[in-house]
Amino acid sequence: MDSQSAPELFDALPYYDNDLELHPILKQKVERELAQETGKVPDTLHPRVPPLIELFAKNPLLRAELDRVESREPFPSLDSIRYQLPAPTSIPASDEEWRKALDNAHAQLEHQKIRHTNLALLQQYGSNAWRIHNYRLEASAKQLEKSLEDLRNLTTEVNRERKNFQTRIGTQLTSLETRWTELISSVLQIEMANVALELEIDRLNRKEVELAAL
């Protein structure tokens, strides 16, 4: 099997292992390593993190306004000149100047009519539209909160299952390790007994040789 496609094996049971408690030096090393890793900014995001969304990519006006808000620049003052009705400055004024002033007055009048119409529409339908918008926002917020709560419950359940599994496996490992220690001790005792018997047999053989010589 290719090493790149082989599954990773982590030989650790974090919910059961107590090496850090048994060896304070290891705990200090882990804390130093975590302190170094916490201060580092990862070069790449996690694969499951969605890419950044560029807002108003196709609307330069809204994009410029967003950049202004991000840079905390003040909002530009309103241009009040276009709302004024300046008269011709030259005396006597020409017909062309009066025509421009009259066209400006007509434009201002039409603008005021449009504003009056928009205010009337806003007064009649704006409150209901705003309530509907708020209702939709509240529904979206509740849905997101529910999704977040479900994800937290799922995370808690996964951690609980991992803890139970690791605790069960850890207990089995401890039992097997204890049994292994007992078997090794028995083997050592048997080997020591064999060595003692060999020494006793060797002594008896020498004794037999001595007796035969006599």
UniProtKB/TrEMBL annotation:
Record keyword Nucleus present: yes
Cross-referenced InterPro entries: SPF27 (IPR008409)
Family: Belongs to the SPF27 family.
Taxonomic lineage: Eukaryota, Fungi, Dikarya, Basidiomycota, Agaricomycotina
Coiled-coil region(s): 134-214
Entry protein name: Breast carcinoma amplified sequence 2
Species of the source: Jaapia argillacea MUCL 33604
GO cellular component: catalytic step 2 spliceosome; precatalytic spliceosome; Prp19 complex
Keywords, alphabetical: Coiled coil, mRNA processing, mRNA splicing, Nucleus, Spliceosome
Superkingdom as given in the UniProt entry: Eukaryota
PANTHER family recorded: BCAS2 PROTEIN, PRE-MRNA-SPLICING FACTOR SPF27
Gene Ontology BP term (one): RNA splicing
Chief location of this protein within or outside the cell: nucleus
Location(s), subcellular: Nucleus
